[in-house]
């Protein structure tokens, strides 16, 4: 007899298991349409690997996870891919998620399978890969990818491998029936996992309310080293941490995983799936689902293809729609109400309860907490449900977290015993959700701060670099200036510049003198020939012509230069405008200035030409 | 009698000197650079860097709060930030100052990409470098990095940036708190 321990708290709700164990597991058959959600596991959603309109064979991969944690999704039967769209999935929110819709062709034609006769000849990594490629994720409810779970951290040796056959939650009998009917496969699956993990002890924990399953499993483990531990019926002994405590006396540390105490728990359904994946090469495409509740004529267990609509299963079980009050997915303690029966069975769906109003009545109104402490006695995790409730209600999530809110397994024992009918678990779920959200926000804001600070640092650096470059340029210019000056000084020393300037000054002087002389001459001429206006105009004309001719050339040159400059500047402005550069304004001003300059030059040229024309005309008339 | 008096005085003096020296040394040796309060306040602010508080970023506002500025000027943080700040500073939480804006659901900027002319103005405006793009090329917002500060909306010359409210999806959904109390007689009334 295996030594057993006990865990604190726990309750004994009515079991209601007999209704669904009267008939063997039946094949649900192939519905008209299968809806395969891309995320049926914890981790990254799978990516669709087929196209709409493709024909797929039974067992073919329709979606796979390429990066990150996750397992592939397979076609449960042969058929055509009808759509990839957002459809309601089993989720407490009732929201939609991406799904592959498969229209079965009724041929149920298998893809090529590669079963393994002797896994012991293979590498452990290869076997783990087979398990992953078969799409196996924990079938107890969480859906954690099994191959990753079977790879415990290197420093954690798994001493005890536990198969969880407790199935403590009322109504659910899927594991019970699986053990009764597929005992050999369950055991062989466990043997594969044991071979991978090499634990010192393998034990299957089954509650004592399943005598048939116990008998079947005991027969199946004959000749192996697996022990069967019959544990007393108490809710929630099937909780991973509770079962570990019952079977080993070890307590999983807060926030830790079972591997921290050298234990690993696997689900019965998972073990069956592993066995089928290894020995038959079949991926996880179906699971046993309990259909129960008083609104069903024939409650029982069925083996349903993943993706089968729940409405299809309920119709098969003889649903009385008029009696149906509430549809619960999972058990009455931990399950959630489905918003619609038009959702598919997924890898983690173990039970559907079609309850009448008398069976699962609406909860009575919440009354004030009377501090009776029943919840604390019932709590299997030895938490303080009352305090957690106060803090959750007052939105003091940090304080709730200090009281180990995240160790709560949401089993519902506290709500079950509460004389004030307080929906305690709902408060904890809310508090957990809010806390997670706050954490995510905190992470995001820290990230934003990092990015902001990095940007500020970058801008500052750029500014400094600019400043540096500006300084360098200024220095270079100053140096050039100094050099020029030095050269000029040198030249001055040689006396050239002085000469130059003197020569220039002399030229100017000479020109002035010439002009003076001319003017004097002119006045003298004018005085001599008084009535000669034409001459008067003609004489300055000759001088004017002398000056105007080179003037026009110069003006033309000037105009051309200005025009060229304006053109390049306009080009630059256009480019700057297109690039939305900072200097657009500056360029615009510069262009306007140049424009003015060109206009002025044009004006000057035109004036000069007019003068010239006048001169020539007057000269001609003369 | 005088001797014992003197001994007491000398001993106390010696103790005072020793501990004074020790404290002085500790103050120098373990000096805290900067104001740790500012860091604490800054870590509570949502880091949208939106400037709605009237300060150029979250850190300047944190510094201002440390110097006695009101704690209710941060619309993106909303009530929860005010509450956290009130807890930290041990002051009474005040309602959000409507002058600086109202609390809104989480939003992200989305560029209508076919309308984007590639002007880079929004890239220059984004305080967290969440906009990707180059001159004359289409820009796009990296959704996971966007803080929803809407500083990029105003500079856009073609108004192609929308602020889109983030709808909860199946992965961000969380449980709601139980409905407020309803006493039994109310419910009887409600059901009939």
Helix-strand pattern of chain B, N to C? HHHHEHEEEH
Strand content of chain B: 5-15%
- Helical residues, percent of chain A: 40-55%
Find the structural class of chain A using helix and strand composition.
Answer: alpha/beta
Mean pLDDT of chain B: 86
Find the count of extended strands of chain A (DSSP E, 2+ residues). 17
User: Which regions of chain A have little confidence, pLDDT < 50, spanning 5+ residues?
Assistant: 530-548
Q: What is the CATH topology of the domain at 125-355 in chain A?
A: Rossmann fold
* Main sheet specs of chain B: 2 strands, antiparallel
**What percent of the residues of chain B sit in helical stretches (DSSP H or I)?**
25-40%
Strands across the major sheet of chain A, in which order? 1-14-13-17-15-16
CATH A-level architecture of the domain at 125-355 in chain A: 3-Layer(aba) Sandwich
Oligomer: heterodimer
Shape of chain A: elongated
Based on CA atoms alone, the radius of gyration of chain B comes out at 28 Å
How confident is the prediction overall: mean pLDDT of chain A? 87
Q: Low-confidence stretches of chain B at least 5 residues in length (pLDDT < 50)?
A: none
Largest beta sheet of chain B: what is the strand line-up?
1-4
Briefly note the CATH topology name of the domain at 36-100 in chain B: 3-methyladenine DNA Glycosylase II, Chain A, domain 3
């Amino acid at each position: 007899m295996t030594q057993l321990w006990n865990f604190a708290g726990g309750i004994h709700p009515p079991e209601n298991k007999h209704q669904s164990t009267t008939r063997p597991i039946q094949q649900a058959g192939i519905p008209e349409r299968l809806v395969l959600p891309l995320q049926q596991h914890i981790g990254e959603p799978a990516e669709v690997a087929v196209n709409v309109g493709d024909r797929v064979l039974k067992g073919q991969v329709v979606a796979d996870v390429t990066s990150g944690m996750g397992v592939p999704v397979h076609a449960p039967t042969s058929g055509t891919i009808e759509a990839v769209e957002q459809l309601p999935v089993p989720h407490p929110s009732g929201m939609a998620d991406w799904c592959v819709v498969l229209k079965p062709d009724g041929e149920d034609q298998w893809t090529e399978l590669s079963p393994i006769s002797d896994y012991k000849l293979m590498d452990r990594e290869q076997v783990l890969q087979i398990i992953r490629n078969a799409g196996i994720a924990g079938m107890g409810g969480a859906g954690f990818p099994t191959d990753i779970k079977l790879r415990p951290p290197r420093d954690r040796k798994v001493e005890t491998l536990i198969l969880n056959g407790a199935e403590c939650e009322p109504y659910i009998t899927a594991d019970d029936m699986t053990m009764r009917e597929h005992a050999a496969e369950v055991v062989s699956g466990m043997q594969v996992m044991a071979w991978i993990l090499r634990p010192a002890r393998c034990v299957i924990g089954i509650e004592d309310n399943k005598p048939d399953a116990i008998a079947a499993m005991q027969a199946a483990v004959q000749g192996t080293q697996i022990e069967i531990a019959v544990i007393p019926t108490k809710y929630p002994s099937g909780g991973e941490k509770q079962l570990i405590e019952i079977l080993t006396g070890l307590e999983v540390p807060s926030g830790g995983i079972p591997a921290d105490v050298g234990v690993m728990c696997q689900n019965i359904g998972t073990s069956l799936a592993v066995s089928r994946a290894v020995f038959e090469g079949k991926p996880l495409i179906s699971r046993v689902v309990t259909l129960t509740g008083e609104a069903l004529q024939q409650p029982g267990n069925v083996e349903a293809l993943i993706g089968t609509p729940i409405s299809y299963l309920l119709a098969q079980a003889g649903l009385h729609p008029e009696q149906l009050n509430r549809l619960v997915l999972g058990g009455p303690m931990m399950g959630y109400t489905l918003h619609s029966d038009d959702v598919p069975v997924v890898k983690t769906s173990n039970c559907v309860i079609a309850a009448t109003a008398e069976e699962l009545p609406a909860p009575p109104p919440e009354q004030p907490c009377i501090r009776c402490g029943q919840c604390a006695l019932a709590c299997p995790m030895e938490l303080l449900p009352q305090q957690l409730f106060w803090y959750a209600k007052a939105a003091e999530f940090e304080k709730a977290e200090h009281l180990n809110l995240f160790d709560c397994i949401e089993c519902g024992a506290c709500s079950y015993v509460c004389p004030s009918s307080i929906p305690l678990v709902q408060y904890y779920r809310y508090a957990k959700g809010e806390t997670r959200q706050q954490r995510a926000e905190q992470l995001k804001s820290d990230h934003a701060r990092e990015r902001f600070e990095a940007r500020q640092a970058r801008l500052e650096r750029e500014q400094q670099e600019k400043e540096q470059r500006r300084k360098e340029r200024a220095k270079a210019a100053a140096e050039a200036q100094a050099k020029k000056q030095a050269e000029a000084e040198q030249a001055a020393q040689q006396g050239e510049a002085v000469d130059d300037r003197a020569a220039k000054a002399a030229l100017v002087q000479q020109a002035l003198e010439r002009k003076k002389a001319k003017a004097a001459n002119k006045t003298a001429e004018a005085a001599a020939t008084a009535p000669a206006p034409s001459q008067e105009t003609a004489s300055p004309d000759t001088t004017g012509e002398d000056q105007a001719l080179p003037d026009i050339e110069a003006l033309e040159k000037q105009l051309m230069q200005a025009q060229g400059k304006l053109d390049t500047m306009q080009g630059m402005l256009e480019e700057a405008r297109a690039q939305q550069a900072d200097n657009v304004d500056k360029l615009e001003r510069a262009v306007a200035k140049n424009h003015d300059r060109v206009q002025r030059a044009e004006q000057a040229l035109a004036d000069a030409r007019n003068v010239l024309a006048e001169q020539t005309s007057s000269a001609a008339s003369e | 009698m005088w001797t014992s008096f003197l001994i007491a005085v000398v001993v106390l003096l010696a103790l005072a000197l020793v501990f004074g020296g020790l404290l002085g040394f500790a103050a120098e040796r373990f000096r805290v650079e900067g104001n740790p309060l500012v860091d604490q306040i800054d870590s509570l602010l949502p880091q949208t860097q939106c400037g709605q508080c009237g300060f150029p970023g979250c850190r300047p506002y944190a510094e201002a709060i440390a110097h006695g500025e009101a704690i209710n000027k941060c619309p993106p943080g909303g009530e929860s930030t005010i509450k956290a700040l009130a807890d930290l500073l041990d002051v009474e939480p005040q309602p959000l100052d409507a002058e600086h804006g109202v609390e809104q659901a989480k939003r992200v900027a989305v560029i209508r990409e076919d309308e984007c002319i590639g002007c880079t103005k929004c890239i220059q405006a984004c305080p967290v470098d969440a906009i990707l793009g180059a001159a004359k090329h289409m820009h796009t917002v990296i959704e996971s990095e966007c803080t929803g500060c809407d500083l990029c909306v105003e500079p856009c010359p073609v108004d192609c940036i929308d602020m889109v409210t983030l709808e909860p999806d199946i992965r961000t959904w969380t449980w709601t708190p139980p409905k407020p109390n309803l006493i039994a007689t109310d419910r009887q009334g409600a059901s009939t």
